[in-house]
Design goal:
Elements: E1 3-7, E2 10-13, E3 18-25, E4 34-39, E5 46-51, E6 57-59, E7 67-72, E8 77-82, E9 91-97, E10 100-101, E11 105-110
Parallel strand pairs: 2-11
Antiparallel strand pairs: 1-3, 3-8, 4-5, 4-9, 5-6, 7-8, 9-10, 9-11
Length: 111
């Protein structure tokens, strides 16, 4: 059974940074693509970034140049480095892979 566990969320001031982590278990991590999504209050869940098994990355236009997705296939972990955060980035961030969602981690950016 695949499990994804996120961590790293919190409260930060605008302009600050956070790094989210998602540890995967129950799967051959190096073979799978992974993604980060987010859901802000009263909004639909949206794709933030994707990384393929080979390391190819894609980003939503709203985070390009500010967020970086990466993976460590030894630690079975995918990361999301978030810089220059704004209040519009406030959301619950979810890790996704192999048809499975993590529990989410709250990111709150104050003005």
């Amino acid at each position: 059974q695949v499990q994804l566990v996120e961590s790293g969320g919190g409260l930060v001031q605008a302009g600050g940074s956070l790094r989210l982590s998602c540890v995967a278990s129950g799967t051959i991590f190096s073979n799978i693509g992974m993604a980060w999504y987010r859901q802000a209050p009263r909004k639909e869940r949206e794709l933030v970034s994707v990384i393929s098994s080979g390391g190819t990355t894609r980003y939503a236009d709203s985070v390009k140049g500010r967020f970086t997705i990466s993976r460590d296939n030894v630690q079975n972990t995918v990361y999301l480095q978030m810089n220059s955060l704004t209040p519009d980035d406030t959301a619950v961030y979810y890790c996704y892979g192999v048809g499975t969602w993590g529990q989410g981690t709250q990111v709150t950016v104050s003005p």
